[in-house]
Design brief:
Chain lengths: 223, 400
């Protein structure tokens, strides 16, 4: 489903070339549960951003769901992100002015769904993520675990094929982090491809496939 | 993202940054209000002046003795010449012209009015029955000078004089002494107030022949002429000049002015003035526009990670641009509306404080004020919106 061939991403920092991704090739099948691990600066977040079409590669090819998405225009990339990708971030990235329900509805608004349809979908998501009584609270009034649940609900509201999580438990304590991971894994069991970037070994070990990176290259890929 | 959601979402943003939004709206509103109030003042002054002139009568042509013209000669030459008198006979000839509907000769002087043991100095107008329609004056009671009444000793009093001399209200038919002659009060003018620095409530009007006798003069002060129509004003002016030149041995020694010309000049000057103050007020709107731009740029910087998030969940560059655009639209719409209301309220206060000044904001100014607010707001949002839309999602998400 995700097929990267010889993807290279170069950053220029103070006149120096940094190869964040150096000719990376991987295949990730639909429904896989993959962890990407490595020290900071190893390129794991860049890899996730390229997979999520947030970042472009400087060379190489990227095929998603059988279509070549390497050279899509900015607008087309936005559409693919909306329809096929769900992002979960370490710092949640909720819009502070909007309530939990409104944050969850954002992708539906961007998609242009009618309010009635939006409401039923958001209600279902609030139930599924146990947020019903928090629906009208703003992020500042929610606990860390609740915030990440809102973020996950938002990431999955349009039923993406791939869920990309960048240190999803980084800002949570151990117990809450485990709950969030259980939630993500539940989504994986329901068929979503789950890719988690982390430098937490314990967390990475829970995945079914472990990719290790260093200096922009894949040093290990084990199932 | 559809238009409705864009508007709702941007409104939520505007509403949640309360202080920021209030300040921008205030700046916008003050700009619009300034345009509305200042043009109301300018246009009010214009209407006031035009109204004052119009109250003198319509299609009015005024004949003055003497040339109001400087010649190239040395000063003494002009000073040495005495213009020929403008006489009642001249006035009659003017009245015969086909372009003239009616005419009224006029003499003005001051005399002592005595009645019932009271005495005061009053302004005396000597004229004929036609003065009433020409000057669009109205009577409160009794009748004006009768037609062909040059020789009947009747007098018309201004409303205030009537009150002062006859507090009991019985005025008509009373005898009154003006100078050395006795007059019968035939009518009282309606209250008109001051017009062109001339209080018609404190004047008396007597037949022209008596006035010339009283002031011992053959010469008229003015001839007031009403042309048959607006189009007849210029021909009437030419004909009057011509006939008086013929009567004065080929000497063009009278000045004929039309109210229209004076009126038009004032109208033009005051319109230009109104436009000028509107322009000055519009500058404050431009300043408000710059404020909007500044605040929007700060907003883009503040919300960088939020913009990154919107892009990550699939917002296109156009979506982001429209969101900021709509935000500016809301701000300037609110500013324009509040400024409109504030300006009209201010104009109303002015009218309340100065009832004589018709300080109504002209429609064009209200429309232009609000439109300028919208336009500057939208223009000011273009740059910040473009900047937001161009943000790289990866950098934006990391807050850089």
């Amino acid at each position: 489903m995700i097929r990267l061939s010889a993807i290279t991403r170069v950053f220029h920092m103070g006149g120096q070339e940094v190869r964040a991704l150096n000719s990376i090739s991987i295949d990730i099948a639909s429904g896989e549960y993959v962890s990407i691990m490595g020290p900071s600066g190893s390129g794991k977040s860049t890899l996730l951003n390229v997979i999520g079409l947030l970042d472009r590669s400087d060379s190489g090819h990227y095929e998603l769901d059988g279509t070549d998405v390497t050279d899509l225009s900015e607008n087309e990339r936005a559409r693919v992100r909306r329809e096929k990708i769900g992002f979960v971030f370490q710092s949640f990235h909720l819009v502070p002015r909007l309530t939990a329900a409104e944050n969850i509805a954002l992708p539906l608004i961007l998609e242009g769904l009618a309010p009635a349809e939006r409401k039923s979908r958001v209600d279902a998501a609030l139930d599924a993520f146990d947020l019903r009584d928090r629906a009208h609270h703003r992020p500042a009034e929610l606990s860390g675990g609740q915030r990440q649940r809102v973020a996950i609900a938002r990431a999955t509201i349009l039923r993406p094929t791939a869920l990309l999580a960048d240190e999803p438990t980084g800002n949570l304590d151990h117990r809450i982090g485990a709950e969030v991971m259980a939630l993500l894994e539940g989504l994986h069991h329901a068929g979503t491809t789950l890719i988690v970037v982390t430098h937490d070994r314990e967390l990475g070990a829970r995945a079914h496939r472990h990719i290790a990176m260093r200096d922009g290259e894949i040093v290990a890929d084990e199932k | 993202m559809n238009l409705r959601d864009t508007l709702i979402l941007s409104f939520t943003t505007v509403a949640s940054y309360r202080t920021r939004s209030l300040l921008i709206v205030l700046a916008m509103a003050l700009g619009v209000a300034a345009v509305v109030v200042l043009t109301a003042l300018g246009d009010g002054a214009r209407r006031y002046v035009v109204g004052q002139f119009s109250s003198l009568g319509t299609n009015l042509v005024i004949v003055l003795p003497g040339r109001a013209e400087t010649t190239g000669g040395f000063p003494g030459a002009a000073l040495g010449q005495t213009p020929r008198d403008l006489t009642l006979e001249d006035a009659r000839f003017v009245g015969q012209l086909p372009q003239v509907r009616r005419y009224a000769p006029l003499n003005v002087g001051v005399a002592e009015l005595t009645a019932g043991g009271r005495l005061r100095e009053v302004t005396v107008l000597g004229s004929t029955a036609e003065l009433l329609p020409i000057r669009s004056m109205k009577l409160a009671q009794g009748s004006f000078l009768a037609h062909g009444s040059e020789r009947s000793a009747q007098i018309v009093l201004g409303s205030q004089l009537a009150r002062e001399f006859f507090p009991d209200g019985k005025v008509i038919g009373q005898r009154i002494r003006l100078g050395d002659s006795r007059f019968l009060v035939s009518g009282v003018l309606a209250v008109q107030g001051e017009s062109m620095g001339f209080n018609s409530d404190e004047i008396t009007i007597i037949p022209i022949a008596y006035a010339q006798e009283l002031f011992n003069t053959e010469s008229l002060f003015r001839i007031l002429v009403e042309a048959r129509s607006r189009n007849a004003i210029e021909p009437a002016k030419a004909a009057i000049t011509h006939v008086l030149k013929l009567r004065h041995d080929g000497e063009e020694d009278v000045t004929v002015i039309t109210q229209d010309a004076v009126l038009e000049t004032f109208d033009r000057i005051l319109r230009a003035l109104t436009l000028g103050v509107a322009g000055i007020a519009a500058i404050s709107l431009a300043v408000a526009g710059i404020l909007v731009m500044n605040v929007m740029l700060v907003a883009v910087a503040q919300r960088t990670s939020e913009i990154g998030l919107l892009k990550a969940i699939g917002a296109t560059a156009a979506d982001i641009r429209r969101l900021f655009f709509a935000e500016a639209l809301w701000l300037s719409l609110a500013g324009g509306a509040i400024g409109f209301a504030l300006g009209h309220f201010g104009a109303w206060m002015i009218r309340l404080a100065y009832p004589l000044l018709p300080a109504w904001p002209p429609t064009w100014a209200s429309v232009a004020g609000v439109a300028t607010a919208l336009l500057t707001g939208i223009l000011a949002s273009l740059l910040p919106a473009a900047r937001a839309a161009k943000l790289d999602p990866v950098l934006a998400l990391s807050g850089k």
